[in-house]
Design goal:
315 residues; alpha+beta; five-stranded antiparallel beta sheet; 9 helices; 22% strand; disordered N terminus
Length: 315
């Protein structure tokens, strides 16, 4: 009689052989991911079907691997960028965890750094085991909702300026951001990818910020003053957004930095979007570029470009 150990060994061998057949059915094909985009390599997974002799066989079923970066690059190349202007954008589909980015340049933050300033303050308060003071809360509200510069300067001092910001950003995972010199917080240097990482700290659960801090920042970013409700919000559904914009005319050139970061909702799905630009001849044209880039970024996932908004048409 066959022993228990022998029967068990024979069973394992059969199972291993069956697994080897399935794994051996993996193949690679090329698939056209999007009109006008070069074909990309896509893995296929096997599926069983009946052969002529009735035995199960393995056939590959294509699962296209979409190159989101290539799609975004194609979309951005079609935007109306002025000569001498530059734009960089990063986007994340929160539900799937897929992202895409375009451009690797470093930009002035202008007032989008105010989100980073408040995130730093909240992190420092957490570390100290305290709540924000009434004065800090008043500054935070004015700084985010109305983009008040005096409030930003007050909190910049509170966090320890660039040194405090940089220390927090190291914990936040921002690797290409450097605080501005002295009181020049608006000249903090950053990248679109870093701003997307900051947004993940604000809106994601895997964050250095606790739930209360994230909720506080999100609430303020969802109550931006009426005249500042432009930017990445152009890519979302109605009022389903939370954002912070930045705009700064450079004294030496007269050209504008125009930036926008935030979360938008499209068809029930959330997207984090960061758009940075510089070299714009007017603020209005910078807004138009930023909004077009935000719509292009989200369209990489939805396949639909939203119409130009009234704000985007300004300037």
């Amino acid at each position: 009689m066959e022993s228990r150990r022998a029967r068990r060994t024979r069973t394992l061998i059969c199972a291993a052989a069956a697994s080897a057949v399935v794994m051996g059915g993996t193949a690679y094909v090329t698939a056209q991911a999007h009109s006008g985009v070069p074909a990309v390599s896509s893995a296929v997974t096997p599926s069983a079907s009946a052969s002529d002799n009735g035995e199960a066989s393995v056939e590959p079923v294509a699962q296209p691997a979409v190159d989101r970066d290539a799609l975004l690059a194609e979309a951005v190349r079609g935007l109306p960028v002025e000569d001498g202007a530059d734009v960089s954008v990063a986007v994340l589909d929160v539900d799937s965890g897929e992202g895409a980015s375009y451009g690797e340049g470093t930009f002035d933050t202008a007032s989008i750094v105010k989100v980073d300033i408040l995130a730093t303050l909240l992190l420092q308060a957490q570390d100290a085991g305290r709540q924000l003071t009434a004065a800090e809360q008043a500054y935070a509200t004015a700084m985010i909702e109305h983009s008040d510069n005096d409030s930003a300067s007050a909190l910049w001092r509170t966090i320890g300026g660039a040194q405090g910001l940089d220390a927090a950003n190291e914990r936040f995972g921002l690797t290409g951001t450097e605080g501005g010199d002295g009181m020049l917080w608006g000249l903090t240097q950053t990248t679109a990818v870093d701003q997307l990482a900051l947004l993940q700290q604000v809106f994601g659960e895997e964050s250095e910020l606790d739930a209360a801090s994230r909720s506080y920042l999100q609430e303020l970013m969802g109550q931006i003053a009426a005249g500042q409700q432009w930017g990445v919000s152009a890519a979302g559904d109605d009022a389903a957004w939370a954002l912070k914009n930045g705009w700064l005319p450079r004294t030496a050139t007269g050209l504008w930095d125009v930036n926008s970061i935030g979360r938008v909702t499209v068809g029930g799905r959330d997207y984090l979007v960061a758009v940075l630009s510089d070299g714009n001849s007017t603020k209005g044209k910078g807004i138009a570029l930023v909004e077009a880039a935000a719509r292009a970024a989200v369209s990489v996932f939805t396949g639909v470009s939203l119409p130009t908004s009234s704000a985007a048409a300004a300037g």
